[in-house]
Every structure is written in structure tokens, then in C-alpha cells.
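This entry is listed as follows:

___
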Amino acid sequence: MERWRTRYFPILAEYVLHVDKREEDDLNELLELLAGVPVEHIFEQHEDNVRLLVSHADSEDRLALMHRSLLFLHEIMGSRSLSETAAAKEEPLSEDWRQAAAKAVPLQEEKPSRFETVLQHLDSGIALFEPGGTLRFLNVPMARLLQVPRRMLIGQSLRQLLFHPSLSRSLRLIFIRMYRQLKYDRRAQGEFLDGSRYLLISISRIEELDGDILVSIKDVSEHKQIEQSAFQNDKLAMLGKIAAAIAHEIRNPLTSIRGFIQLLKPYLESIGKQDYARIILSEIDRANEIIYEFLNSSKPSAPMTQTVLVGLLLKETILLTESEAHMRGVELYCEVFDPYLMISIDVKQIKQVILNIVKNGLDAVADVGDKRRPMIRLSARKERQYAVISISDNGRGMDRTTLSRLFDPFFTTKSDGTGLGLSVSYRIIRNHGGSIQVDSVLGEGTEFMIYLPAIGERE
């Protein structure tokens, strides 16, 4: 493609869309490139480029955009040096030019083509760049992913896009990483994390469109969540098979050992070694407790459901933990937005889940110190068809690595923990037809959100 055609669109877009930021150097460069180019070719290029700009503009801005594009054309054509032949016929040419210039600005709004309509309704963001790096087209989903209006991006060069003030820093870093992968590793596809979003980005060159470069971005956060959930279920299924073998191989010998130690207990007391018996029995009981939790993590008992008020459930749970919280200097708050919200649950199992999370919260706020008052807040609300129980603390929080392994069996950050509490809780909630989500910021706190199917409506 001729260089003047490549440069015409970005310079026109800069002139039309950024009224207060017109670059004289770019305009002079274009005038030099247009020397010797037939007038009718310039008008054709101008008309095509204006149509492209209008297609990305809001309806209320289109008339002003066309007006500024006509001013641009006047400025270009007024600065062209006329040949001696053209100068001798200045008046007829001026009239022809006015008629051609009017036709080069499409005042009638064209209906978008069927293919453009399809592109606008895709669930992926699509952007099309010229070989020189100028953005020619982007659909609405792409502008939504970038969180920048389309009219502010069209006609921008790749460098201008990367340093656009409205583009978030995280997306800018992702695009730079993608550019490096494409340049050095020749990889044209990658998956990147932008905050809580997983973005799948791919780049391809389309030879049928004169080598234009197609960039597509798809938000795959939901697919990633499903994938992680399936992976978690696979791990728990494997855990169930291991647990069945452990139950038979370890529990029975421990029972026999405990029985013999109890028989030896009088003898150990008679020789002043009663502490030995006490320690051995307590350690065997601890091992049995670990095995019991392990078995529950693989296959908790079927829920024996009953209908309860969520607010009453939270208040009963607070009664069980407020004494320990008081001793640790932790404030407990409870807020129920819908006092008539009801769920059908196994009360014992769900209390176990809530108590487990609250106890983890008590440990998390232990390191707050004098910076802020330790606090745990419980709340309940209705969200669509679910009752949402929120348990938040202002403790030390967790990093992304810890969050990714939070529900893995035997994973723990505590020196004396078993790493089974949250794994058991996850399975209990899943057996009730619900889910658990966790949001945590390192140094600020953590929030657990338990989603359970709601059955109650306010009478």
C-alpha cells in the first residue's frame, strides 16, 4: 500500500477527534506525501476514511465529525501546490473541487453491513490494525474490555494505544508482555490475568486484507472458574479413594494400640510414669481425629436438612464463638438484611462450616496489633435465588498463591493445622447445592461468601 494512504487515516483521525491537539508536523508530512497524487484518489481515500470514523462515532457526534473532516479536506487541498496548467484554469477547477469535496464527505448515515453487525455482537473483543500499526476497527466488546470509548481509540498508532491515559496500567503491562512474546518467542496467543479477569489474547495476520493484523481478546473468567471447580472435584474424588484405604489400614491398629495402653495405664501410674500414658492416649486421639476429618473431607454424611432462618443460624453461631473472641479482644458484628430469609440445610454441618471460617478469622486478626481494632463481621442477604452468608475479617489477608490452594486437602499456613477444615467445608457446601467464594487483599483482610439455595420469601 502506498505510504500516503497508510498515513492519511491516522492523521485525519487525529485532526478530527482531537481538536485541541493537532500536530502540524503530521499535517506537513502528509502534504509532502500527497504531492503528485491525483485529486480524485485523495477524495476517494478521504470518503472511505470518513465513513470508517463515522461508524465508530456516537450519533450526536457524527455531524460535527463530518464538518471537521471537511475542514481537514479544505486545509489539505488549499495547501496543495497547483501546476501551471491547473493555475491557468483556477476557476473551473475550484468549482469542480467544491463539488468533489462535498461528495467526499458522506452526509447520509450508512446502515452497517451484515458482517460488521456480526462482529459487534461477538462475545470477543476484535481490533483490526493496518500493517503500519494504525487501529482501523474495533468492536463494542473490545472497547468494553479496554474500558475506553471507541472514538478515543480509532486512528491511534500502537504506541499511542499503549500509552493512552485512559488505558489501565494492568492492561498496558499485558499488551507489552504480549508484544514481547510475539517478537521474541513467536507466540501469537496467551492467557493473562487482569485483576480478577482471565483474558485470552490472540494475534494473527490476514493476508486477504493486505496484511492487516487482527487482535482478539476474550474474557474466559467463567470458563477458568469452571475448570478450577472441576479440578477441585477431581482432587476430592481422588481423596475419597485414598481415605477409604486409610480408614481400614490405620484406624483398626490405632484402636488396638489405644486398648493396650489403657491396660498398661495402672502399671505406668504405679511406677510414676502416668504422663506417658496420658501423652500416648492424647496423640492417638489426635491421630483418630485427623483420620475422621480426612474421611469427612472425602465423603461427609448426607445432609439431614431442615428449614431455618439464616439470621437465627448466625446468631447461634456467634453465641458459640463470642467468648473466645472476647478473650482475644476481637469484635464480632452480625448484620442480617432480610430477617425472613430461610434455607434448607443440615444445621450441624453448616454450623461446622461457619465456625471453621470464624476460627480462621480469629487467627488471621491476631497479628493486626495496634494498627486497627481486630474485627469479624457476619452478614446475610439474598442474591437472586441464593442466600449469601458473608464472613469477613480485617486480618493479614492472603496472597494469590495461598488463595489458589485454599481448599486443597492438607494445605495449611498454620504450624499446628491439619489443612482439612476448609476442604471439608467446601465439600459440605457443594453437597448442599451451594458454593464458596473468597476475596482477600494482603494486609487488609479476607471475605468468605457462602452461597446456599434460598427457599424462604417474606410473607
Summary: The CA atoms of residues 135 and 230 lie 39 Å apart.
